[in-house]
Specification:
Pfam families: DUF3861 (PF12977). It comes from Sphingobacterium kitahiroshimense. This protein is of the alpha+beta class. Helix 1 packs across helix 2. The longest helix has 20 residues. The protein starts with 5 loop residues before the first strand and ends with a helix.
């Protein structure tokens, strides 16, 4: 049986730069993830690990994008040293 993933589309717009110049760049990204990201955003937000919901969502999105790439590239030596620490971090996060 084929494992199915959830499909997502992300649009990132550069709004303004730190030097005061208006942003002009944008990025459109289609990707898949084995988790329900919107559910994870809610779970992380409900744990009140951070002061506000936006920070919680930013954290969850970054973590899930990174860990999904790591999962899809298990054999890549780039992740070899990081994998054990990420596994421990995820256990700690899930238990909080």
């Amino acid at each position: 049986m084929e494992k199915r993933n959830n499909a997502y589309q992300l649009e990132l717009k550069e709004v303004s730069l730190k030097n005061g110049v208006a942003g002009t760049k944008s990025l459109h990204l289609n990707f898949d993830n084995h988790d329900d990201l919107f559910n994870i955003f809610e779970v992380i937000s409900s744990k009140q690990i951070f002061d506000n919901k936006e920070t919680a969502t930013e954290f969850a999105l970054g973590l899930k994008l990174f860990t999904e790439v790591m999962l899809k590239n298990k054999e890549n030596p780039l992740f070899e040293d990081l994998r054990p620490a990420i596994l421990e971090f995820m256990k700690k996060l899930e238990s909080s």
